[in-house]
Amino acid sequence: MVIWNIFGQGYRSKGLCTPGGRKGTFDGRYGCRKCFCVTFDKSNKTAVSGEYFFLYYSWQRYKFMCHVWHSSRKEVRKFMMKRTISGMIGAGSLAHNRRDFVAENVDPDRVQLNICYKNENLKEVYKELFDDAAERYNVGKRKDRQIANYYEKIRQGKQEKLFHEVIFQIGNREDMAVGTLEGNLAVKVLDEYVKDFQKRNPTLRVFSCYLHQDEATPHLHIDFVPYVTNWKGKGMDTRVSLKQALKSLGFQGGNKHDTELNQWINHEKEVLAEIAKQHGIEWEQKGTHEEHLDVYNFKKKERKKEVQELEQEKENLTVENEGLTSQIVDARADIKLLEEEKIQFQKDKETAERRAEKAEAELKKLEDRREFLQPVMDNVSKEIKEYGMIKTFLPEATALERAVTYRDKKIKPLFIEMKNKIGAMAAQVKELTRERDNWKSKFQKKKREHEDTKKELAEVQKDYQKLSGEKEILQGLANRYNRLLRMLGKDMVERLVQDDIRMQAELQAKKQKEQMPKKISDRIPWAKERSEEHNAQIKKNKAKYRGMEL
After folding, report:
1. Which residues contact 439 (CB under 8 A, 6 or more apart)?
2. Distance CA 17, CA 354 (A)
C-alpha cells in the first residue's frame, strides 16, 4: 500500500488531494508534472517497487516527501533520474571564478545567482600555512639558502603548483540546464556536497570556492592548497605537496592511470553520487560485467558500454571546453592588461623624459653660472699674484728725507692700505670659493640625478619593448585561434585541441619511460624492460610478415 508522508503524518493515497486538484490515485495526467516522484496507472495497480527512495519537491507552500515501499530495486531505478557526474582538474582562473570579468559563455543576468563559499587571498593563506615552518627551516642556514618568501619560491619553481582546482558537475546542458527544475536540484546537491568538503579533506586548504549558475550547467569550482605536515624529508617540515597531501588522506596511488589524484577524484565523485542519490538522482557510469551472456547480448552490452564511455568522455570534454574557453578569456584579459600597462609605461616614459629635460636645463644653468664666475675668479687670482709681489709700489724718497719720516709718512700707510686691500680680497676669494663649491655640489647632484633618470628611462624603454613583444605574441595567438574557429568550426578546433593534448601526454609518457634512470640500481631493470619490449616487437613483426619472406 502506498503511503504519503506529509509533515510526519501518514495518509492513504485515496484521501490525499493531488497537485492536479483531484482526489484519487496519481497517474500520468494528474501526477506531479515537473517533479520526479512515482506515478500510478488508472487501475491503481502497483506501479513501482523498491525498498524506498526519497525525493523532495516544493509545491505551493508544502514540501512532499515521497516514500514508496515494495520489493524490487531494479524497478525503482527506472523511476530515478540517471545523470552523469563529472570531476576534473580546472584551469585555476581565480579572476574568472570571481567574475572580475564576464566571459562570452556567461549570462550577465544570472551572475548574482552564483554562490561564493570562500574567497581568501592566496598570499595570506600561504603565510598562515608556511611562515612558521619557514622560520624553523631558516634557523642556522646561510642567508643565501634561507627561504624569505615561500609563496614566491613555489611560484617560480617547477615541482609544485601554487594551488589546484577541481570542478564538479552533475549532468550536462541537455538534462541539467541552469534555470530548470533539474538544474535547481543539481544546485541543491552541489551545495550540500561542498559544505563538508574541507572536513573530508583537511590537508587540502580551500581558499576559493564558487558555485556557478550563470553558465550552461551548474558546477562547482574548488581551489585549494595541498600541504603536508611533519615532513621528514628534505626541506621544510610543512610544505606544498599534492601527492603527500592525498596520501595522508589514504590514497596511495598505483600505475600512471591510477594516481593518487585519480583515486581521490573518483572517491569525491562517489560522495557526490551518494548525496545525489538521496535526491532522486542515480549516477550514470560505465556498465558492469555480467556473466553468461549469449553472443548477441554480449555485443549489445559491449556497445552500450562503449556508448556510455563516449558519453562520459563527452561530459569531460564539455567541462574541459569550458576551461579552455575561460583560458582564452584570461588570455584576452591579459592582452587588455598588457595594453593598460603599455599605456602606463608610456606615461612613465614621458614623465622620465620630462625629468631628464629638466635635469639637463638645471645642468645648463649651473654651467652658465660657472662660466660667469670663472672670469671673476681668474681676476682675483691675478690680483693676488700681483699684490703678493712687492716691487715698484714703494715711492721714491726725497732728498735729505729722514728714514723715520719716510717710514711713517710713506711706507707705513702704503703697507696698511695693501693689508686692508689684501684682506678684503681674501674674504672675497673665500666667499667666492664657498659659492663655487656650493654650485659644484649642486652640479654634481643634478648630474647624478640626470644619470639616474637616463637609467630609469632606459629600463622603462626596455620594459615597454618587452611588453610590446608579449602583446604581439598574445594577439597573434588570439587571432590565429579565432581564424581557426571561423575556418574549421568550434567542434573541429576543440577536437584538435584535445587530440594535441592527448598526443603531448603520450609523448611525455613515452619520453619519461625511455629516459634512463639516474640511479645505477634502477638501470638494470630498466634495460631489461627495454630489451623485452624490443624482443616482443621483433616477434610481433615476424608473426605479422610470416610467409612473405623471400
Report:
1. 366, 369, 370, 373
2. 84
Helix (H, G, I), strand (E, B) or coil at 87: strand
Dist. CA 88–CA 261, nearest whole Å: 10
**pTM of the complete model beyond 0.85:** no
On whether the CB atoms of residues 301 and 293 are closer than 8 A, the answer is: yes
Distance CA(499)–CA(313), nearest Å, equals 13
Q: Which CATH architecture is the domain 82-285 placed in?
A: 2-Layer Sandwich (3.30)
Q: What angle do CA 197, 288, 81 make, to 5 degrees?
A: 55
Least confident residue range of 95-104, 108-117, 303-312 = 303-312
Q: Is the pLDDT confidence value at 40 over 60?
A: no
Average pLDDT over residues 89-110: 89
Give the DSSP letter of residue 22. -
Sign of CA dihedral 396, 401, 407, 408: negative
Dihedral angle, C-alpha 164, 170, 171, 173, nearest 10 °:
-70
3-state helix, strand, coil in the chain (%, to 5): 60, 10, 30
Residue 469's Cβ-count burial label (10 Å; 0-12, 13-18, 19+) is exposed
What are 341's three cell numbers? 600597462
| Tens-place pLDDT, residues 337-362 | 778 877 887 888 788 778 778 777 87
Residues whose CB falls within 8 Å of the CB of residue 67, separated by 6 or more in sequence, listed in order: 3, 4, 5, 52, 54
The cell for 156 is 617560480
Q: Where are the domains of the chain?
A: 3-79, 82-285, 292-514
pLDDT at position 503: 87
The partner residues of 116 in beta bridges, in order of sequence, read 210
In the prediction, which pLDDT does 64 show?
35
Residue 478 to residue 211: CA distance in whole angstroms? 28
* pLDDT recorded at residue 221: 96
Helix axes 412-488, 490-514, angle to 10 degrees: 110
pLDDT in tens, 190-211: 999 999 999 999 999 999 999 9
